[in-house]
Design a protein that fits this description.
13 helices; 534 residues; 27 strands; alpha+beta; Cholesterol Oxidase, domain 2; seven-stranded antiparallel sheet; FAD/NAD(P)-binding domain; seven-stranded mixed sheet
């Protein structure tokens, strides 16, 4: 029996942040038919719209790919969950809803690395186009875009103390980290709307599903890209166990993220020929960097016990019910805001050329118990500290040619000595914040952290045992102008025709900040590139 066949002009793999933007923008052109293919299933109850639901969606196979990394020899053999969204909206449906663009210098560095058209002056209009911010302006923020970016509707008092302590410790105050300057400390902004998560699917796809030239096909496991010679012609896939042939008249775009896009390239014969051959995959394009250059923000999740009630107090049943009722009535509530209350981008030492560290402040602390995230009753907050521009590089490796077998993730988060030094300085900054009033006046202890004045060997041992990824994997389909790059600045996969990659796997260098906003921008950029050729 022949597989079912579906055709469209442009086929996009992955209804995550970049894929949703790209599909929406392409389908604004009436003469282009767009098929958006997603492995996850559409929601019926829209659980992900409740911001606090991420405590139940992360690690839940209904919403999450549930990847687990390989033991990391640079961190005492640590392995951990690497969440990636498996639902329309992708990771924007299960993430912490933190909206930050990265620094202008990040994109200028991309351009300096040969990525023409990706400098700050090129991408700022795209960032402005995609958003409706609470405080739009004519220079930096947008007011007409589909993605809602909101100020916090609920603020915990201790977060204000954290901002004051950061300023007292020497971090510049900043009214808008997405504005004229990226450096400093400020209240977080989130991808929320009226107390609800505003995922890329809700912003860019759901309102336009009635377009005759836009189709979302969920529950599809893509097995490989199909080729005629070196021209991509479509996809071989399965839906509900049945084979499915998808034909792309104009081209295929992989927007499946930093884990799945390189995995699909390898399954399709694009990668290191020796590695592909070990799994019986015929090489189509010799591209050894596919799956290499894995970048992730390494850092620490430091819990502080404080002397005042935190959001942990709202986890007891009667308080949780009261806060949930407030959220239902549209009142300020911890149920309706992103994870982080405060963000900061700052220099770990005076000689740093750019801000090399980031803080988040969560107004709660959580524990992993029996594989599930729980909120204890202790009064805890979490100070998250990470390096902005890691030099360490991990990689992805095929386990087999089976498309259903997850790819092996080798993080090697602390592989570079400079990253270790940056994070050790960051640990000192965490201690400084915990000792600086007014926040420091309320800190009783930093949980598990070696005390001030500990020997460097103690701090290093703590770092290797406690360092974790920040769920910002990038770079595994590196963009560049050199022959080793996986994709060119126009997002075309080198050596192929009619095949592109458009997601954060293209990063040539990591950005200072969380990655969702940049993924949205990449979708906008990809749409402009493709429409310019239509």
């Amino acid at each position: 029996m022949a597989p079912e066949t579906i055709e469209a002009d442009v086929v996009i793999v992955g209804a995550g942040s970049a894929g949703c933007v790209l599909a929406s923008r392409l389908s604004e052109r009436a003469g282009i038919s767009v098929l958006l293919v997603e492995a996850g299933q559409r929601e019926r109850l829209n659980i992900t719209r409740l911001p606090a639901a991420l405590m139940r969606t992360i690690g839940n196979a209904r919403y999450d790919w549930n990847y687990t990394s390989e033991p990391d020899p640079t961190r005492d053999g640590q392995a951990e969950l690497w969440p990636r969204g498996r639902v329309p909206g992708g990771s924007s449906a299960i993430n912490g809803m933190i909206f930050i663009r990265g620094a202008a210098a990040d994109y200028d560095n991309w351009a300096a690395l040969g990525c023409t058209g990706w400098a700050w002056r090129d991408v700022l209009p795209l960032f402005r186009r995609l958003e409706t911010a609470d405080a739009p302006d004519n220079a930096h923020r947008g007011g007409l875009g589909p993605q809602r970016v909101s100020a916090l509707g609920w603020r915990h008092p201790i977060a204000g103390d954290f901002i004051a302590s950061g300023i007292a410790a020497g971090i510049p105050a900043n009214a808008d980290l997405n504005g004229a300057s990226h450096e400093g400390i400020a209240w977080n902004q989130g991808s929320t709307r009226n107390g609800l998560r505003h995922s890329a699917y809700d912003a860019f796809i759901r309102p336009h599903l009635s377009r005759p030239n836009l189709r979302l096909l969920d529950g599809v496991l893509v097995e490989r890209v199909t080729f005629d010679g070196r021209r991509a012609t479509g996809l071989a896939a399965r839906r509900n166990g049945a084979p499915l042939a998808i034909r792309a008249r104009r081209g295929v775009v992989l927007a499946a993220g930093a884990i799945n896009s390189p995995h699909l390239l390898m399954l399709s014969g694009i990668g290191d020929p020796a590695e592909l051959g070990r799994h019986g995959i015929t090489s189509v394009i010799d591209s050894p960097e596919v799956g290499r250059n894995l970048m992730e923000h390494p850092g620490l999740y430091v819990q502080a016990e404080v002397s005042v009630p935190t959001a942990n107090a709202d986890s007891v049943p009667h308080r949780a019910a009261w806060q949930f009722a407030r959220w239902l009535m549209g009142r300020p509530s911890p149920f309706g805001v992103p994870t982080a209350q405060v963000l900061a981008f700052f220099r770990s030492h005076a000689e740093a050329a750019e801000p090399d560290l980031q803080f988040h402040l969560f107004p709660y602390g959580s524990l992993l118990k029996d594989g599930k995230r729980v909120i204890p009753r202790d009064n805890l907050v979490t100070i998250l500290m990470n390096a902005n521009h890691p030099r360490s590089r991990g990689h992805l490796a095929l386990r087999s040619a089976d498309p259903a077998a997850p790819i092996a993730i080798h993080p090697r988060l602390l592989d570079d000595a400079e990253d270790i030094e940056t994070l050790l300085r960051g640990l000192d900054w965490v201690r400084r914040m915990a000792a600086t009033p007014p926040f420091g006046d309320k800190v009783k202890r930093l949980v598990g952290v070696p005390p001030v004045g500990s020997a460097r060997i103690a701090d290093l041992a703590y770092l290797r045992a406690a360092a974790r990824p920040f769920y910002h994997p990038a770079g595994t389909c590196r963009m560049g102008a050199d022959a080793g790059a996986v994709v060119a600045p126009d997002l075309a996969v080198r050596g192929t025709e009619a095949l592109r990659v458009a997601d954060i796997s293209i990063f040539p260098r990591h950005i200072a900040g969380n990655t969702n906003a940049t993924a949205l921008m990449i979708g906008e950029k990809a749409a402009d590139i493709i429409l310019s050729e239509a």
